[in-house]
Design goal:
Blueprint (H helix, E strand, L loop, with lengths): L2 H11 L46 E3 L18 E8 L3 E5 L5 E5 L5 H10 L8 H6 L3 E3 L6 E2 L2 H5 L3 E7 L6 H8 L8 E7 L5 H10 L6 E2 L1 H11 L8 E5 L5 E6 L2 H14 L13
Parallel strand pairs: 7-8
Antiparallel strand pairs: 1-2, 2-3, 3-4, 5-6, 5-9, 7-10, 10-11
């Protein structure tokens, strides 16, 4: 198949929906395993325990009063709704308000805690963990030949996600790919590439396979928007971002040899390797 035809095929395969404007559509209900985040017996969610209560983070949050971001003349209105990207340290929530912008908002300015308690009580449904729902239907399976959408169910089975924001044309990309390749065997971890720059999907697919690193990657027409949502301004690409299924940041570092070395220790904390039983001592 010619690259142009392959790129068109991948574009048509991408699921519809404006990025972060709404929960991505799942075309086949069989792709979505049963998921129930509610647990009324869990401690009440407060601003103080939001990080520990990530299971109950709602997908959407709204403002409980008008709020004016720094550098903006007009405030966002009461009730303005956005997608919760993650809860940050220091009592703020990173929220994508779509056309109104992406901001870190004080939790107290939002209904995040109230909605989280509704999820906890089983009054507000969640289709899947937040990061899984946001990214799971937007991936190309580079291990498939020809390429196809990465199975959503496979995304739901992971316990952590390594988001790699890098330019496949970059001079250090081959070294980065080789250093991260062993992580494909790590149980419970899914590595996802967010290609930086203008890269047709077919070329990304070919590049990853040529390097022996066929990890799933985000469709080219979505990669830039997801990069802006997920990567903080003070941590620009090339970047490694280790996240929980809800999107909580477990580790981040520049995508350098030093960053990869630090990632190893972070993975041991997030996904401890199974320890084989010691052989019995001879009697």
């Amino acid at each position: 198949m010619r690259p142009q035809s392959l790129a068109l095929l991948l574009l048509l395969a991408a699921l519809p929906g404006t990025l972060h404007a709404q929960a991505p559509a799942i075309t086949d209900s069989g792709d979505l395993p049963e998921y129930d985040a509610g647990n009324p017996d869990a401690p009440v969610v407060t601003e103080g325990n939001l990080a520990a209560s990530e299971r109950f983070w709602p997908y959407h949050v709204g403002l409980v009063r008008p709020w004016r971001p720094a550098g903006r003349e007009q405030p966002l209105p009461l009730g303005a709704s956005g997608v919760l990207i993650r809860v940050e340290a220091g009592g703020t929530a990173r929220i994508d308000f779509g056309r109104n912008g992406l901001f870190e908002v004080p939790v107290g300015e939002t209904d995040l805690v109230e909605r989280a308690n509704r999820v906890r009580r089983g009054e507000l449904d969640k289709m899947a963990p937040n990061y899984v729902l946001a990214i799971g239907s937007r991936l190309v399976d580079a291990a498939a030949d020809p390429p196809k959408p990465f199975p959503f169910r496979d995304v739901t089975e992971q316990r952590a996600f390594l988001s790699v924001f890098a330019d496949p044309r970059g001079p250090a990309f081959e070294v980065l790919a080789k250093s991260l390749a062993p992580l494909r065997e790590r149980d419970g971890l899914l590595t996802i590439l967010f290609p930086q720059g203008e890269w047709p999907d077919a070329e990304v697919w070919e590049r990853l396979r040529a390097l022996g690193w066929p990890v799933p990657f985000v469709y080219d027409h979505l990669a830039d928007s997801y990069t802006r949502s997920l990567a903080a301004e003070d941590a620009p690409p090339p970047l490694l971002l280790l996240q929980s299924p809800e999107g909580r940041v477990l580790f981040q570092a520049a995508a350098t040899p030093e960053g990869v070395a630090e990632l190893t220790a972070a993975l041991e904390r997030a996904l401890p390797a199974a320890t084989a039983a010691a052989p019995a001592a001879p009697r």
